[in-house]
Amino acid sequence: MSRAGMKLQLQHLGLAALAIAAVALPAAVIARQSAAPVGLQPVSAFAGIADPAARSAAIFTEMGKVLTHPRCLNCHPRTDRPRQGDAMALHNPPVVRGNAKGEGAPGLQCSTCHGPRNVAFANGTGSIPGHPLWHLAPIEMAWQGKSLREICEQLKDRRRNGGKTLAQIHEHNANDTLVGWGWNPGPGRTPAPGTQAQFGALTKAWIDTGAKCPT
Amino acid sequence: MAIDFQLNGKPASFAGDPETPLLWVLRDHLGLTGTKYGCGVAQCGACTVHLDGKNRRSCVTPVGTIAGKSVTTIEGVTGKTAEAVRAAWVGLDVPQCGFCQSGQGMSAIGLLTAKPKPTDDDIDHAMAGNICRCATYVRIRQAIKDAAGVKGVRA
């Protein structure tokens, strides 16, 4: 091949790479952290509510700041498509729920891209989130588009919460490391409000006051 | 400390920063340039390799996370499924510019390894993360069907 021909071919390869990169950077992936972390009120902040049922519902409403946060909602979809980023855009690439464990389709599983931990992009800002058990919540645990009351009722329903008792729900909220990822989501994502310890304490207080749901 | 792993069936080692993406190690340190850099953020699929037999984007895989594991690249992928994919790709003359095709081929082999007789939806779902700027998608889908010996219902 002539030198000019080779140069032209290399230019084509370069253009191809640029074109791929240009279409491959949706805003949800490269978006910078858009909001400052929000805190959670401690359990003691609800001590002034005398009626235990009202106190319980108020505590759950505080828990709702976490439950309805993008870090949680994105992977509790009511369809077979997860969302991503603080703007909760549809996940790109357009992955699907796949197998019964929500691990993605054969050939394009969550683990095709998501590793055992968060990984900062090598070529700029942002990161790809990761956890050893990265997967979608089962369809019966779908939260997107639901009111806080509906999510609350769903959380208590053993047919829709993975067969968990309230004590197991507390354990899940307080100690599960995939839940805990929500407070350590890596660069480019706003963490869930407060801390997992605070979320666990609120969950325990909610259960101890009767696990009432907000109206 | 060096990170040891299997690469295309042979021992390989990398003694640099364990955060270095596997793609950088393959291309810049071990000279295997068949795996391509497209976006660097797991959005295009050009860097797809097999990690312990499954599709994996090497641009977001720190080499430190693959110690003791087995990596297969387009240069080293072998076996009946790989041969069938290669023959189907040649038969349909799938590539145009070709830049994305090593990733496309590796994803296709990964799909057929996991699901030897895929439906149209299986193919679309598996290949959704591999972008082709020349839009060879229809030929890619047909080549996968040819390699699998299935007809499907869509072009």
Automatic annotation (TrEMBL), chain B:
Q: InterPro entries recorded for this chain?
A: 2Fe-2S-bd (IPR002888), 2Fe-2S-bd_dom_sf (IPR036884), 2Fe-2S_ferredoxin-like_sf (IPR036010), 2Fe-2S_ferredoxin-type (IPR001041), 2Fe2S_fd_BS (IPR006058), Beta-grasp_dom_sf (IPR012675), Diverse_Oxidoreductases (IPR051452)
CDD domains reported in the protein's UniProt record: fer2 (cd00207)
Q: Name one Pfam family in it.
A: Fer2_2
Tell me the GO molecular function terms.
2 iron, 2 sulfur cluster binding; metal ion binding; oxidoreductase activity
Q: Which UniProt keywords apply?
A: 2Fe-2S, Iron, Iron-sulfur, Metal-binding, Oxidoreductase
The keyword Oxidoreductase is annotated on this UniProt entry: yes
Domain called 2Fe-2S ferredoxin-type: residue spans: 1-77
**Protein name (Swiss-Prot/TrEMBL):** Isoquinoline 1-oxidoreductase
This protein's species is Sphingomonas turrisvirgatae
Q: What is the lineage of its organism?
A: Bacteria, Pseudomonadati, Pseudomonadota, Alphaproteobacteria, Sphingomonadales
